[in-house]
Amino acid sequence: MDLTATTQHLASAAADLVRLVPGKLIDPVLSGVLLTADAHGVVLGANDRERTARVSRGALVHTEGRVLVPAKPLAETLRALTQPQVRLVVEGSRLAIRADGARFALPLLDVDLHPGAPESAVGGSTVSGSQFAAALATVATTASRDEALPIFTGVRLRSEGDRLVLRATDRYRMAIASVPWSADTEIDLMVPAALLAEVGKQVAHIDRVTLQATENHLALAWSDTVVTTAVLDGSFLSETKLALSDADTHIEADADTLTAATRRVALYSDPRGVVQLEAGDTELRLRATDHQAGEAEEPVKATITGGRTSPSFQSRYLLDALRPFAGTRVRLAIQPGMRATVLTAVDPGEVDLRYILMPMLPPKV
């Protein structure tokens, strides 16, 4: 194999691939990147037997070929190069990376042991890349990171008419977002949140993303990238198991103002980071107290209707809940007692988002 390519394009492809499929450190073959060069350019592929990725880039191919090399060293080397062009050429048992007099060489792994990379997805349902990314920025980060509870580490993707609904929870909070989509079939799958979080970052400026589902796998395709992943069992994940219709207090406030006040007051919270929201007539008063840190309170102008429920929340979860509503007004529907509070946008856009937050016991005075 022998090819010349634009360094920046090849480096971005390798970096995207490594983030989509980090690889199995215990198996060098599954931690490798499969490079396939032909008349159409070069394809970088990865497969760890649970997820796969394939990224294509244009290249001037002098000699067609197929090799397997360690993925991360290739990505890091390409990222570090400042020369505009780079040449990849097989030299004996190594792949040489040449750029204006510099030479780096990676060992060739056994390409015949690699399971291969996915072909491009054909057909499937489509969603706006920017809207999908906006939904995933909130929903995917709400899933649990505790691998001991894998059923909470995914995002449930479910088609509901002309909307694709995304749901995730870590048992203390839940985020639900829906986006318009063009569906050719119904889907209902639980997809690892870590992968979708990275997909969201890569498709933020992409026009369309294609989703193609089977019983045990989901394929996502955009531009020159195709990703597949095994799915989890997520049929249990639904907000219908939560009582969300008994709110007795409704609060509307500027999300940025409320976020800033929460950060300041949380500096004086107890070790759990608990902040109390006390609803008044025309303002929402945030309070926090700790025997060592002291105490703080700050009012935020708000439109308040209904009762005077005063829930307490862990500040970091409240800040996470407010983050997707930045730059807008947010509505809090507060239920009495230790029941969930629902945050929504006062004027929702194409991405319809609901964030369900469980309260904490108030701090002991």
From TrEMBL:
Annotated compartments: Cytoplasm
Keyword set includes Transferase: yes
Domain DNA polymerase III beta sliding clamp N-terminal: 1-115
Major place of residence: cytoplasm
Source superkingdom: Bacteria
Domain DNA polymerase III beta sliding clamp central stretches: 127-236
GO CC annotation, single: DNA polymerase III complex
KW Amino-acid biosynthesis (keyword) present: no
DNA polymerase III beta sliding clamp C-terminal domain boundaries: 246-360
Pfam annotation, one family: DNA_pol3_beta
Signal peptide stretch: none
Gene Ontology biological process terms, A to Z: DNA strand elongation involved in DNA replication
Keywords per UniProt: Cytoplasm, DNA replication, DNA-binding, DNA-directed DNA polymerase, Nucleotidyltransferase, Transferase
Molecular functions per Gene Ontology: 3'-5' exonuclease activity; DNA binding; DNA-directed DNA polymerase activity
PANTHER family assigned: BETA SLIDING CLAMP, DNA POLYMERASE III SUBUNIT BETA
Cross-referenced NCBIfam families: dnan
Family classification: Belongs to the beta sliding clamp family.
Full protein name: DNA polymerase-3 subunit beta
